[in-house]
Design goal:
The complex is a heterodimer of chains A (about 200) and B (about 525). Chain A is mostly helical and about 200 residues long. Chain A starts with 11 loop residues before the first helix and ends with a helix. Chain A is built from 11 helices and no strands. Chain A has 2 domains: about 90 residues, RNA polymerase sigma factor, region 2, helix turn helix motif (Rna Polymerase Sigma Factor, Chain: A, Orthogonal Bundle), CATH 1.10.1740; about 100 residues, Arc Repressor Mutant, subunit A, CATH 1.10.10. In chain A, helix 2 packs across helix 4. Among the domains of chain B are: about 45 residues, no CATH class; about 120 residues, no CATH class; about 150 residues, no CATH class. Chain B is elongated, with a radius of gyration of 33 Å. With about 525 residues, chain B is of the alpha/beta class. In chain B, about 50% of the residues lie in helices and about 20% in strands. In chain B, the strands form 2 sheets. In chain B, strands 1, 2, 4, 6, 8, 10, 12, 14, 16, 18, 20, 21 and 23 form a 13-stranded parallel β-sheet that branches. In chain B, strands 3-5-7-9-11-13-15-17-19-22 form a 10-stranded parallel β-sheet, with no helix packed on it. Classes of the chains: A mainly alpha (about 200), B alpha/beta (about 525). Chains A and B meet through helix 2, helix 3, helix 4, helix 5 and helix 6 of A and helix 1, helix 3 and helix 9 of B.
Chain lengths: ~200, ~525
């Protein structure tokens, strides 16, 4: 669970030291912290948001928030988990505000029956697609589905954290993830050209 | 035997099942090849997803290399603020100050400085050099804004292509827009008696004198404008001194220091002036709408008179109703008013004994500032609140994304204020330039209308932001509606308070306008250059 991604490594004591320096207003420490975590947060935002420009803006804004809210960080918990929490709240907030209509329109999507997968077909699908293609497919998913996959498989968040971020019950997170996997398979299976139900609605706001 | 569905398999793999249930799945999978295959495929899919997502193939953009500083200033709004400050300084030193000095020398001591500026400032002698300065300012503003909009896309040929073709289109369209006869005085322009212009005539000159005939409209921008001849269309005149001695078949509309009608105007007369006079020989076939510091109306007006301003003297004949809102009014002995007379002013009108009025003057004392004792005032404020709320609701329901973007942009106080100041100044300049240079009056007027809509909508975004600040962020439309209502209510109350209401109005206007610009930029950006993967 603690396989959180950063570009470099820093021991817990070093990190604590840097964080207290940042709190004290040390610009160098802040620069160090930023250089260490900005690439991971940029990639997180890049996966979660539909455009590169949005991801760039969001990265800057997330770090501004981090600097403001650093006082509320509980040092007994992993720093990266907290960082991803701030980033995911920010990104989800951005998406939610833009895509209110879509959320209203795709409410019934969750009740559609899912086709049972054929394991061998699924394995073939995985062999045929590069990481880049998978990320391309991910961009075509509805916001909530994409966000669920990114929170779980990039930020390694727990079901509780995902539920809290996306504003759904914990029990529903599994359904959300399974639906998202199906939507991704569908997006990739149709040559990546298909737009999954609901994603189109999201673009039209 | 019972197979497990995909959902249970996934929860099992992710460690989300109760221990008993997990054991059941494990035991079943040990003896069932189908379920084992499914579990394996799903597990591989999880690994595959993690790998795909964590691949570090995207390079981190150069602009993210440096940590954002608290309160760091992006160059865009520094440039905007700088330009706005420069613009204001230029405006002050170029127009206001010289003109004010000139006015003081001439013994002109009218109290309302803004009125003087509005009526006379732009008719200062050095207008030609001012015009080029304003053009330069507008071009510089436009340049800055375009550079800022495209700062991330400069290298993309599509964007450059779009911009270049837009410029090419604008250049290609210019000659068709200027179908009228355009004359630049050297420095004066005279249309001699007996000469005739078959189309509209547009003149920029120091003195414009029309002794001949104009078949279309006359649009003149001069210090002195004298119409002795015959204009078959409308007269639109911007000048220091505008005088109509001849015949105008259409309307006369003017913005000038002094405007005098001594000839005949077949339709309406509209003037925003320091001094507006209708000579004894002057006739107006339609109505007169006037905003003037001083006005003597001795001629004949067939229609209604609607007038605002300082001192009015009515000596002529008035075919229909007269409505006045001015400091003083005197009605001379030769005056005849065939309709009703409504007058709102400081003192009752002075009426000479010979004056013929169809009905007694309906007089209301002019109020300065809001009357807090009147219930009607609060009712009026409530209605204004309702109107702004309704407008906000329409924006929120039609374009929720844009609404929230603009509301969010309010949080960026410094850039919002910077761009707000810039656009508040630049838009009217651009609109005037559009009217007279490249594209034409239609686009210019639309720009002005949009500008007013934008100015009105500023309170909605600032109100929404204020509501959210007080009640905290909410999810979806319904909480946003409540927050909007609260925010607008508070803004309305602040705007009812004496002393602060002007400041609140200006702050909301500047701040909201900036937020609107920022949100608009955010909206158009992805359309201009679709994001690359």
């Amino acid at each position: 669970m603690e396989r959180r991604k950063t570009t470099g490594e820093m021991s817990a004591t070093e990190l604590t030291e840097v964080l207290s320096q940042v709190r004290a207003g040390d610009a160098d420490a802040w620069g160090e912290l930023y250089r260490l975590y900005a690439p991971a947060i940029f990639r997180f935002c890049r996966r979660a948001l539909p455009s590169r420009e949005d991801a760039e803006d969001a990265t800057t804004e997330v770090f501004m928030k981090v600097r403001q809210k650093l006082g509320t960080y509980d040092a007994t918990r992993p720093f990266t988990a907290w960082l991803y929490k701030v980033a995911s709240n920010h990104c989800w907030d951005m998406l939610r505000r833009r895509r209110i209509r879509q959320d209203l329109e795709t409410g019934d999507l969750e009740t559609l029956p899912l086709e049972h997968p054929d394991p061998s077909q699924l394995e073939r699908l995985m062999e045929e697609h590069t990481s880049k293609q998978v990320r391309g497919g991910l961009e075509k998913l509805p916001d909530r589905a994409r966000m669920a996959l990114v929170l779980r498989y990039y930020a390694d968040m727990s079901y509780d954290e995902i539920g809290e971020t996306l504003g759904v019950r914990r029990a529903f997170v599994g359904v959300l993830l399974l639906r998202a996997r199906h939507q991704l398979r569908e997006a990739l299976g149709q040559g990546g050209a298909a737009v999954v139900r609901g994603a189109a609605a999201g673009e039209s706001v | 035997m019972n197979h497990f569905d995909e959902m249970n398999c996934l929860l099992y793999l992710e460690g989300q099942l109760e221990p008993d249930r997990a054991r059941e799945v494990a035991e079943h999978a040990a003896s069932c090849a189908g379920c084992r295959d499914l579990l394996r495929a799903l597990k591989t899919e999880g690994v595959w997803l993690r790998q795909a997502l964590s691949a570090e193939e995207d390079s981190v953009p150069a602009r993210l290399m440096e940590a954002p500083e608290r309160g760091s200033a992006p160059w865009g709004w520094i440039a905007a603020l700088g330009l706005a400050a420069g613009g204001m300084y230029t405006l002050w030193s170029g127009i206001v100050e010289p003109w004010r000095a000139q006015a003081e020398q001439a013994g002109f001591t009218q109290g309302n400085f803004l009125t003087m500026l509005f009526f006379s400032g732009s008719f200062w002698k050095g207008w030609d050099s001012m015009r080029s300065l304003m053009e330069f300012m507008a071009m510089a503003t436009l340049g800055i804004v375009v550079t800022w909009l495209f700062r991330r896309h400069w290298k993309r040929f599509t964007t450059v292509g779009v911009v270049m073709s837009a410029v090419a289109c604008a250049l290609a369209m210019a000659p068709t827009a200027n179908a009228a006869d355009v004359k630049h005085g050297d420095p004066n322009y005279t249309l001699a008696s007996g000469q005739e212009i078959k189309t509209d005539l547009i003149v920029f000159a120091d003195t414009t004198r029309i002794d001949g005939d104009v078949d279309g409209d006359l649009i003149a921008w001069s210090r002195n404008i004298i119409v002795n001849g015959h204009v078959k269309g409308d007269v639109l005149a911007w000048g220091q001194d505008v005088r109509v001695n001849g015949t105008v078949d259409g309307n006369v509309r003017t913005l000038a220091q002094t405007a005098t009608v001594a000839g005949s105007v077949a339709r309406n007369f509209m003037a925003w002036t320091g001094q507006a006079d209708l000579d004894e020989k002057g006739t107006i076939g339609g109505s007169a709408t006037l905003g003037a510091g001083n006005s003597t109306l001795s001629g004949k007006i067939a229609g209604d008179v609607l007038a605002f301003g300082g001192h009015y003297e009515l000596d002529g004949s008035f075919g229909r109703n007269v409505m006045l809102h001015s400091e003083e009014l005197s009605i001379g002995s030769t005056a005849e008013i065939k309709g009703s007379t409504k007058y709102e002013g400081n003192h009752e009108a002075e009426v000479a004994s010979g004056a013929k009025l169809a009905s007694p003057i309906d007089f209301v004392t002019l109020k300065h500032g809001p009357d807090y004792k009147q219930v009607r005032y609060y009712w009026h404020q409530t209605l204004l609140w309702g109107a702004s709320f309704l407008f906000g609701l329409v924006v929120l329901l039609l374009a929720p994304g844009f609404f929230f973007d603009a509301q969010d942009a309010c949080k960026k106080v410094a850039p919002a204020v910077g761009f707000g100041v810039l656009f508040l100044i630049a838009t009217p300049i651009a609109a005037v330039l559009i009217c007279f240079t490249i594209v034409g009056i239609g686009v210019g007027i639309s720009t002005v209308l949009l500008y007013f809509v934008a100015a009105y909508s500023t309170q909605v975004f600032v109100g929404g932001w204020l509501g959210e600040k007080l009640l905290g962020p909410g999810t979806g439309i319904a909480p946003a509606v409540g927050r909007l209502a609260l925010g607008l209510g508070i803004l309305r109350i602040l705007r009812m308070l004496p002393y602060v209401r002007g400041a609140v109005f200006c702050a909301v206007l500047v701040w909201g306008m900036g937020a609107l610009v920022l949100a608009f930029y955010k909206r158009i950006r992805p359309q201009l250059a679709p994001a690359a993967a």
